[in-house]
Fold this sequence. Notes:
Alpha-Beta Plaits, mainly alpha, 8% strand, 3-methyladenine DNA Glycosylase II, Chain A, domain 3, single chain
Amino acid sequence: xxxxVLIIMFAVLGILLGYAAIRFKVEGDPLVDQIDAxxxxxxxxxxxxxxxxxYAQAIxxxxxxxxxxxPGGEAGIAALADLLGVEPKPLNEDNGVEKxxxxxxxxxxxxxxxxxxxxxxxxxxxxxxxxxxxxxxxxECTGCELCIPPCPVECITMEPVxxxxxxxxxxxxxxxxxxxxx
Length: 182
């Protein structure tokens, strides 16, 4: 008998929670969602915000400029400018410079398993256990370099992502020597 009472009670609570989720749903700002979708999701903090979502919120609120994201580079700035209907600007070098895509690599022979890199990684791309060797999940690593400073044995290096068909892009044309026609 008490089993059926619990089932009825849980069913009623489930219905109430479902109703509350629909009734009190908070809609997010669609502009923030669109801006966040353009950002590279490295969560590196180079833009002076704790992640891409807070930076997107600041852009939407007019509190931050569109040129503060080095991982997004010039392409990201151009996409944000197009989305927001403003003129693109050069990357703010106070936040860093645009680099090729990098991935963290841990020297497994040197790693002491201190877990400091795991705690520093904003996207959980590092696996390992205390006092055991750690490794990087390359597909998850955003190349933010936040794991390097806390490593006491300096066993983490940043290496360029290997070019594959999935990552291949055309080289940018050299525009420095364009001919000016009269």
